[in-house]
Design brief:
The chain is mainly alpha-helical. The protein has 2 domains: about 60 residues, no CATH class; about 45 residues, no CATH class. The protein is about 20% helix and about 5% strand. The protein contains 2 helices and 2 strands. The protein has a two-stranded antiparallel sheet. A hairpin with a 5-residue loop joins strand 1 and strand 2. The N and C termini lie far apart (about 60 Å).
Length: about 120
């Protein structure tokens, strides 16, 4: 399918079906009978939003920037956590301060509940 923006009455607009057909014809996506879509190559958005419901990543996902809307981890659900800063190896028996420092680091990162 070739898209000619001037050929659309009222402006260069495609229906969702026309757009998906163009993506498939271009080899950018494939879809199966269940409605699953596979993106071939890189997906880039220079502005705006990319939205997906029930998104499953089967390879590596790389995000440059901020990813919003992802849930925090809870005791029963996986979610987003922050990396804990390195805690040096101890050379003697741990103290209460060492143990409490570890607990605080885990809580700050969202890995352990604060209470």
């Amino acid at each position: 399918m070739t898209i000619n923006p001037g050929s659309f009455e009222g402006g260069p607009y495609l229906t969702k079906a026309e757009f998906l057909s163009w993506l498939e014809d271009s080899g950018l996506i494939t879809s199966d009978a269940s409605g699953n879509i596979t993106i071939s190559g890189d997906l880039t958005a220079s502005s705006g939003e990319i939205k997906a419901e029930n998104l499953e990543v089967t390879g590596t996902a790389k995000f440059d920037g901020t990813v919003e809307g992802l849930p925090d981890a809870t005791a029963v659900a996986a979610g987003v956590v922050k990396q804990v800063a390195n805690i040096a190896q101890l050379s003697a028996a741990p103290t209460m301060a060492d143990f409490n420092g570890l607990i605080t680091a885990l809580q700050t990162a969202g890995i352990m509940a604060a209470s």
